[in-house]
Design goal:
The chain is α+β, with helices and mostly antiparallel strands. The protein is built from 16 helices and 16 strands. The longest helix is centred in the C-terminal third of the chain and has 22 residues.
Length: 491
């Protein structure tokens, strides 16, 4: 039997509240898989509770004759009850199994979970009452990179058409707010494209029935990603978006990961310029104002980097470096789309096949090309950690950070404490020596030494609401200690 054209690997950490939505995703995959597009899934419906049982499924054309999911269940690991989906080794082992037992011409990996802490899993039910809110395990960007890299050796063994372990063609994040610089940069050497959203992904998730059909059409990876981005947004075009429904306008982007290397230099230059500029009060005011006006995600923990550069670029001293960052983002984002005032707005970059030269973005509204009078799509495709929790300050409610939990939470409730846990976890990840993005861009140096100082100066009374007072003090201490060391050296 010949190799299938595609194998779609689906790795699902449903974490209790999302289990039934995951079942619907699996049913769509089962009903549309073919012998040319085979689906292999690993599914943990119940976090780390003692009752959980990780399952594996294989779907192809024959499985349509077996209507129950469990009729297609496969497992060869007697210890599967004790697996943690947030452990890098678990993901690696799953991918190695797929590469060995289901060789294909091309592979797509879909990570179906919560975000922005990828594959977050609750502790065992017996421990949940005694652990702090937000406690749990998740896969850091550096760990995700390592998990994928470790699996490439097996692909090298089985793919005799390649002289080395080939990259994944596509990584899709069926999780909220995962289209971030931190993730895309870490994966630049592990895959060709990343498909993810800066915003929430609604509970019903990706439209897998539509996506499997796209994989069957013989498109190249880039064209497939571009079509998938538009198809996903179109599927949610007619939804009701409001606080009362708990659903917000969807966005999705396809990132050409090799282009992320070209963001490194401009972003490092911007980070250094921002850090130095905080010493000047007027310039610090400009940075604060630009951040406050920019498109935010995850309640304000992340910002659209392109939009921030647009807001800040009017300042003469930042015009060039902001322009370079924006250009790098435009070249990296192969496609982005969103719902704006009920319309599907898409921006697609086209490149010459021979040279890879990007010929500028083409914008369409509801499928029709437009040049002027177009709705503004503020999501440019890539977010970055830049904490300013204005939603918590300005609104009576704050938007939840993951799918699967009621969307509107009183800001005085414990959910605000959840943001504090997120801030600590994210900044701990930034200090991981294996996190290439932090080392290569100096972005966290700006957060520590620049942004913390700006927030403490601009809004000292609201610091614990806008950011996290304890973390800010900890960051500012690094400035004092650094100055002390420098001063002692100079003396």
């Amino acid at each position: 039997m010949s190799k299938p054209k595609w194998v779609i690997m689906v790795y699902i950490a449903a974490n209790d509240t999302l289990a039934n939505f995951a079942i619907e995703s699996l049913k769509q995959l089962q009903e549309t898989a073919t012998n040319e597009v085979v689906v292999v899934a690993q599914f943990d419906p119940d976090g780390l509770s003692s009752e959980h049982q990780v399952r594996r499924y294989v779907f192809n054309l024959e499985t349509r004759d077996k209507p129950l999911l469990d009729d297609n269940k496969f497992w060869g690991n007697a210890d599967h009850r004790f697996l943690s989906m947030s452990e890098p080794g678990t993901l690696t082992e799953f991918m190695e199994w797929v590469y060995r037992d289901y060789p294909a011409e091309h592979y797509c990996l879909t990570l179906w979970a919560e975000g922005p802490l990828l594959l977050f899993q609750l502790p065992a039910k017996s421990d949940r009452e005694i652990l702090p809110l937000g406690a749990g395990a998740y896969l850091t960007p550096a760990q995700l990179k390592q998990a994928l890299h470790n699996a490439r050796g097996v692909r090298k063994e089985v793919d005799d058409a390649q002289g080395e372990g080939k990259k994944l063609e596509i990584i899709a994040m069926d999780a909220c707010s995962m289209s971030m610089c931190e993730i895309a940069y870490e994966l630049k050497d592990e895959a060709e494209f990343l498909v993810a959203s800066q915003e929430e992904v609604p509970d019903p998730s990706f439209r897998y029935d539509m996506l499997v059909k796209l994989f069957s059409e013989g498109l190249g990876s880039k064209e497939l990603c571009q079509a998938g981005v538009v198809g996903y947004v179109t599927a949610y075009q007619q939804y009701f978006y409001s606080q009362s429904t708990g659903t917000y306008p969807v966005t999705l982007a396809a990132i050409e990961l090799k282009q992320m290397q070209n963001l490194k230099g401009p972003l490092k230059e911007l980070a250094n310029a921002l850090t130095s500029a905080t010493k000047d009060t007027l310039t610090a005011d400009l940075i604060y104002s630009a951040r406050a006006q920019s498109q935010s995600y995850v309640g304000g923990l992340y910002v659209d980097l392109h939009d921030f550069c647009n807001k800040l670029g009017g300042a003469t001293q930042f015009a060039k470096v902001c322009g370079n960052v924006s250009k790098a983002i435009d070249n990296a984002v192969a496609a982005r789309a969103g719902v704006v005032n009920g319309c599907v707005v898409e921006v697609v970059n086209h490149a010459a096949a021979s040279t890879g030269t990007v010929y500028g973005p083409v914008m369409r509204v509801n499928g029709e090309a437009v040049k002027s009078g177009k709705p503004e799509l503020l999501s440019y495709g890539l977010s970055i950690y830049f904490p300013y929790l204005k939603d918590a300050k300005e609104n009576d409610h704050i938007q939840d950070v993951v799918k699967g939990i009621p969307r509107m939470i009183d800001k005085d409730s414990e959910m605000l404490a959840g943001y504090r846990v997120l801030i600590k976890d994210i900044e701990d990840d930034y200090q991981d020596s294996q996190f290439d993005f932090a080392r290569d861009t100096n972005w966290y140096q700006f957060i520590q030494q620049g942004w913390s100082l700006i927030l403490a100066s601009q809004d000292p009374d609201d610091l614990d609401t806008l950011y996290l007072a304890r973390q800010c003090v900890k960051n500012l201490l690094t400035i004092i200690q650094s100055s002390g060391v420098s001063g002692a050296a100079a003396a």
